[in-house]
């Protein structure tokens, strides 16, 4: 007879998958949780990333549609491909910037003690 999967094994698998996904989404803790300017900057970066993702998806979807419906105009294909490429490059650079919020010293540089000792 075939082996039956217990509910405990299913729950354990779901829990492990959830833990792995959670670690991928937020790899490190956010050190500047209480800093209002850091929270606002991070929210703006995430909003820009979402907008760039939507813009890239629209460009990707509309490139073949407009290219074949307008009579294979190369200018449309090149411009939409350029928009897609630029949005991808900006998204990757914003992703690198967002990672910097999760790494580093939890004390902002403006709050570090002076090195000269006044």
Structure commentary:
With 118 residues, this protein is mainly α. It has one domain (7-106). It contains three helices and no strands. It has helices at residues 7-25, 36-69, 74-102. Helix 2 packs antiparallel against helix 3.
Largest sheet: none
Hey, roughly how much beta strand do the residues contain?
A: under 5%
Q: What is the alpha-carbon Rg in Å?
A: 23 Å
Model regions low in confidence, pLDDT < 50 over at least 5 residues: none
Strand/helix succession: HHH
Keywords:
3 helices; flat; mainly alpha; 118 residues
What is the secondary structure topology, with strand pairs?
Layout (H helix, E strand, L loop, with lengths): L6 H19 L10 H34 L4 H29 L16
Helix pairs in contact: 2-3
In short:
The chain is mainly α. It has one domain (7-106).
